[in-house]
Amino acid sequence: MDIQNLDRVPAFITKDGSEIRELLAHRNSCIRNQSLAEARLPPDGSTTPHRHERTEEIYYILQGTGQMQVGEEIHQVVPGDAVAIPPGARHQITNTGNEILKFLCCCAPAYEHDDTLLDR
């Protein structure tokens, strides 16, 4: 059994500019086909518009408020919202609140920098 605690997992900046803490993935556990990370964006922060050729993602909002864009669709997101992001879909999330926006990122296959294509 592998257990990782958020307080003991180092943070890093992804290619899209978000700060994440990878909780479970092939890099730190027995998990091989997906990854789970917590991401954080400061107030007024935004990820760079990007897409993943191979990876599908789920964002699950934990804290704060944001604006989520997937393709041409734009929606406000709040805690409890889960967002489906299919492979190849251009997406971006922006913190529209006054506190840190925290959300879980579930990726299958696991997140990799080389699968992130920036669309500036």
Supply Rg. 13 Å
CATH class: Mainly Beta
Give the N-to-C terminal Cα separation.
41 Å
**Main sheet record:** 6 strands, antiparallel
Query: Structural class of the helices, strands and pairings?
Result: mainly beta
Please tell me about this protein's structure:
The chain has 120 residues and is mostly beta strands. The protein has one domain (12-115): Jelly Rolls, CATH 2.60.120.10. It contains no helices and 11 strands. The protein has strands at residues 11-13, 19-24, 35-41, 50-52, 56-63, 66-70, 73-77, 82-85, 91-95, 101-108, 116-118.
What is the gist of this entry?
The protein has strands at residues 11-13, 19-24, 35-41, 50-52, 56-63, 66-70, 73-77, 82-85, 91-95, 101-108, 116-118. It is mainly β. It has a six-stranded antiparallel β-sheet with strand order 1-2-3-10-5-8, with no helix packed on it. A three-stranded antiparallel β-sheet has the order 7-6-9, with no helix packed on it.
What are the SSEs and their pairings?
Layout: E1 11-13, E2 19-24, E3 35-41, E4 50-52, E5 56-63, E6 66-70, E7 73-77, E8 82-85, E9 91-95, E10 101-108, E11 116-118
Antiparallel strand pairs: 1-2, 2-3, 3-10, 4-11, 5-8, 5-10, 6-7, 6-9
Features:
six-stranded antiparallel beta sheet, Jelly Rolls, three-stranded antiparallel beta sheet, 120 residues, 48% strand, globular, mainly beta
